[in-house]
Design a protein that fits this description.
Largest sheet: none
Number of helices: 13
Structural class: mainly alpha
Helix content: 55-70%
């Protein structure tokens, strides 16, 4: 199938009610309001398609961009592809989820994440921290640089309250991810989260900023600290 055919299919699946919900969450036009469960059906049919994913993302249509992340052949994605995607991200749904998911499962996740978190562009920096969160969720601890992660946690502690808009949400998510998925750093992440305290930012829709120590402690009570995910995508 071509990107044009997929876009027509997505348009037919959009609903006004879901579009209103997405508008409240900051999704910009153009988009159709397609529920993720409907995109999953298309993903199941297509599975992975590198070029189709690139073509869908380039449409600039939110639904198509989100679907592009689901069907992307992550290991074929180049640094150039991912840098283009991060620059073209037009809302938090894409910069916080779609791009980081694909980057984390590519061969360039750590390198690009460390590059992006230094960006002056908020959406790019957000993608960087979210990519790091995805990496710790899917990589075995033996593949992770724990000393580097500890330094990054310290960086979050020192700078999170000075960051604009949505970026603190991604940084807070990184603290939670490290504490939940990296056994050797759970205690340190809890300590960092406590020192940070509650972070208050304006979030779209009914989104709320979780208090990282409480979130990590809930994971501890479930007995799932260190349990990795099979995929960054959901």
């Amino acid at each position: 199938m071509t990107a044009i055919e997929i876009v027509k299919e997505l348009e037919s699946l959009g609903t006004d009610s879901y579009k209103r919900v997405m508008l409240n969450h900051g999704v910009p036009e153009p988009f159709f309001g397609v529920k993720i469960e409907e995109m999953k059906k298309i993903q199941k049919r297509i599975k992975k398609d590198y070029q189709l994913a690139l073509d869908l993302f380039d449409t600039g249509i939110y639904d198509a961009m989100y679907l592009a992340g689901l069907i992307a052949d992550d290991l074929k994605m180049t640094k150039k592809d991912l840098r283009r995607w991060v620059e073209k991200s037009n809302c938090s749904g894409i910069s916080q989820y779609t791009v980081p998911w694909v980057a984390a499962e590519s061969n360039h996740g750590r390198e690009l994440a460390l590059e992006w978190i230094d960006s002056k562009k908020e959406s790019v920096a957000t993608s960087g921290w979210a990519t790091l969160s995805s990496l710790v969720a899917i990589k075995d601890d033996a593949e992770l640089d724990l000393a580097e992660l500890k330094q990054l946690l310290q960086r979050v502690q020192k700078t999170i309250h000075d960051q604009p808009n949505f970026l603190p949400y991604a940084m807070n998510g990184f603290v939670i991810a490290v504490g939940s998925y990296v056994k050797g750093l759970t205690s340190f992440a809890l300590e960092v989260g406590t020192k940070i305290g509650k972070v208050t930012v304006e979030l779209p829709g009914d989104c709320k900023m979780p208090y990282s120590p409480e979130y990590i402690q809930k994971v501890q009570k479930r007995g799932t600290i260190g349990k990795k995910r099979k995929s960054a995508k959901c």
